[in-house]
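re: that chain from earlier
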Amino acid sequence: MGVLLAPGPVPVLEEISKAQCKEMITHRSSEFTKLYGDLVTRLKGYFGAEEAYIITGSGALGLETLILNLCDKEDKVLCLPNGEFGDHQVTTVKVYANAIAHRQEDSKGWNLERCKEHIDNSGAKALAMVYNETSYGVRNHIKEICRYAKSKGMLTIIDGISAWPGTEFNMKDYHVDAFVTGSQKGIAAPPGMALIGLSKDAVERYTKRASIPSYYCDLRRHKKRYEQDQQTPNTPAITLFWALQKAFDVLDRGGGLPGTVKRHSEAAAHVRKRLIGMGFPLIAEKGFESNTVTGFVCKDAEQAKGIKSKLASEYGIKIVGSRGKFKDNGLRIAHMGNFKMQDLDACLDDIEKILKQQ
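^ sequence. v structure.
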């Protein structure tokens, strides 16, 4: 059996997979009420959210849900992309609002110093950006950015799909109004669930909207049904919800959020140190490195292709290429979810072996 070190979907522990293998129940049963109530209560606590919901669908659906519930067509939304997933966010915002995008160079991160002028001059009602740009393994400094944006009266919408729970985060402390992550990333459950959190300001915003351009993603329907009987407005992926509950159990057992952040941070530092020791430049600039995925640059496309191919064919280890300007000569190793340090070291050991053969 091979080792998967890709940035999502990540490997799923056997106990999480087996949690799905129960006799099916209806989503209008007391059993589901208990299940969903538990998930939402825990998620609100994990996020530091006023409200939280789980929507059957990908993280992209969750992001779209936040934008269409919080933004009107004429609203200016300041977007700060710095990679492929930031670009996807801009595309999503453009469907529902007036996106004003300022793009950071690939491999570069956003901090307040770099975006303060954009915030000051945008006239935007909302800020939308990615916490952890998965394309390169770049972590943006959203805490200081969102705090400043909120001081200017903006709603803050954050894609945290590859950040949580491996990166420090709390909606209240970080001044984030709307947050989304995906089940297949750091929480290490099967793909197919979007986990969203909302602040008090975000709840006030969407509940007072005259109209929301969606039916399935209308959060007023989710809110109404949850407050009625702790159920979902449409049929959810019940088996995935069981798996997510078990994944939450694993998270709590592993020291909760602080323990998970520490484990990811230490693994990331270890991987970076070893790659640098082999002579690889890292894609992320210093101070913006990701806790969950590390991108590195090979000397050329041929070397990158050879490392990736040989890891898979000779050692059974799957890593992935980078994106954007590093598409040809960049590689990424994920240390995300319930990874094993011995698997990361095996991958790095095998890269060293491949280098010696070249």
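The mean pLDDT is 97.
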